[in-house]
Specification:
The chain is an all-alpha fold. The protein is 66% helix and 0% strand. The chain is built from 19 helices and no strands. α2 (9-26) packs antiparallel against α6, α8 crosses α9 and α12 packs across α14.
Length: 412
């Protein structure tokens, strides 16, 4: 997570990609269990960052009107990859061949080197204004847009404010997320929800072995169940906001999983239990996509990569519980579903204690993040609605899209 903040989004992406392609492909040629564990560890350690960097880049590139689209598209392709993995596993039954085909194709992503730009927000946050202008002018020319780049960079630069707020991003660290009370509260809540989301998401994926249906078929359906969730949550994120959308997704997941205790006998009706599991995956899949968008809008630019990396790392540590949680199915097949259901319900309730970010500008500095969401300022109450300022920004964004002025959207 420090790499992303100190070396930039673009360079970090390729550093991690090299590790994934080399170590991931090498995993198909290991000679014993010890070497498999070591190489697999090297693959898994930086992998979450490879998934987060595109989220961060798209979050910092897009205006308010494009953040939802870009975030959900990334999650949608992930779900499609899960479906493809299930189909591939049905065809390729040798684990070495399956491992090779799941890693070697990542080499194609090195083509991004020729057209993936650095994040202008990150460039501005570390004072590289000329590079930010150059990048923005190239993108504006590519999109054939008439944009006042100097004015845009001036706005981003102004958000750095005084010299105290304009500290070098390289001096920021994970402790900055816990120095002030409001940012600390949001960091803890986001991390808790992320941990619950990760355990449940991966737990439901691993739990296909406990379902009374074919493992391959259930794995494919398990991945496919996420796809309709994205199309449903897409308009909701812009209509009811990030907080209510995330809470609703986690509550749906929780209700679906907990309902397994009321299901008829799996021997007589095997697809009832399986369907409840798929409903849970439907909810947590949409919740996973939403938490990435939500967290990216809550953490400030100077520590956004650090914050998302830290939350993801803690969630990754929590994943150690997922196999043990699934193993409880040896005692009672639906016990993992019930436990994951209650975990999801707790995450849904915790979401209500976060402020709404719909229509709000991305926080740039630590002070921006600390002030955002405080009571009586930006709708930080438990069930508070959007502020007037957020409603005005949303209205302006929608009107701009109708009048074709979205090309002048300066909230990148």
């Amino acid at each position: 997570m420090t790499v992303k903040s100190q070396f930039g989004r673009r360079r970090s992406f390729f550093i991690i990609l090299i590790n994934l392609v080399v170590c991931g492909t090498a995993n198909a040629f290991v000679w014993n269990m010890e070497s498999f564990v070591v190489v697999r560890f090297l693959v898994g350690l930086p992998f979450p960052a490879l998934f987060q960097i595109p989220f961060i880049i798209s979050m910092e590139w897009m205006g308010m009107s494009g953040r939802i689209f870009s975030g959900l598209m990334i999650s949608m392709f992930f779900a499609l990859a899960m479906v493809f993995l299930g189909v591939l596993a049905m065809v390729v039954r040798q684990w070495r061949q399956l491992t090779f085909w799941c890693n070697a194709p990542f080499a194609a992503l090195f083509l991004y080197h020729f057209f993936l730009p650095e994040s202008p927000r990150w460039l501005v946050s570390i004072g590289r204004f000329d590079e930010a202008k150059k990048t923005l002018k190239q993108i504006a020319a590519l999109n054939k847009r008439d944009v006042n780049v100097d004015d845009l960079v001036h706005q981003l630069r102004a958000s750095r404010r005084s010299s105290v707020q304009a500290e070098d991003v390289n001096r920021h660290n994970v402790l900055d997320l816990f120095r002030t009370p409001n940012l600390r509260k949001k960091t803890i809540l986001v991390t808790y929800i992320w941990v619950m989301n990760a355990i449940i998401y991966n737990g439901l994926t691993l739990n296909v072995s406990n379902l009374p249906v074919d493992d391959y078929v259930s794995f494919i359906i398990n991945g496919a169940s996420e796809l309709p969730a994205f199309f449903i949550v897409w308009p909701l994120l812009g209509f009811i906001g990030r907080r209510w959308s995330l809470a609703s997704c986690m509550l749906i997941c929780g209700i679906g999983c907990v309902s397994a205790m009321f299901a008829p006998s799996p021997q007589d009706h095997p697809w009832v239990i399986a369907t409840m599991s798929f409903v849970g995956k439907f909810g947590v899949g949409a919740g996973f996509a939403t938490i990435y968008i939500f967290a990216g809008e809550l953490y400030p630019t100077v520590v956004r990569a650090i914050g998302m990396g830290m939350s993801s790392m803690v969630a990754g540590s929590g994943l150690l519980l997922a196999p043990h949680l699934v193993a409880l199915g040896n005692y009672w097949k639906i016990l993992p579903l019930i436990l994951m259901g209650f975990m999801s319900l707790s995450a849904g309730i915790a979401t209500f204690f976060l402020p709404e970010t719909l229509g709000a500008p991305l926080p740039q500095t630590l002070e921006d993040a600390e002030n955002f969401g405080k009571a009586n300022k930006t709708g930080g109450g438990l069930f508070s609605s959007l502020t007037e300022e957020q409603r005005r920004r949303i209205s302006d964004c929608k009107f701009g899209a109708i009048s074709r002025s979205a090309s002048k959207d300066t909230n990148i």
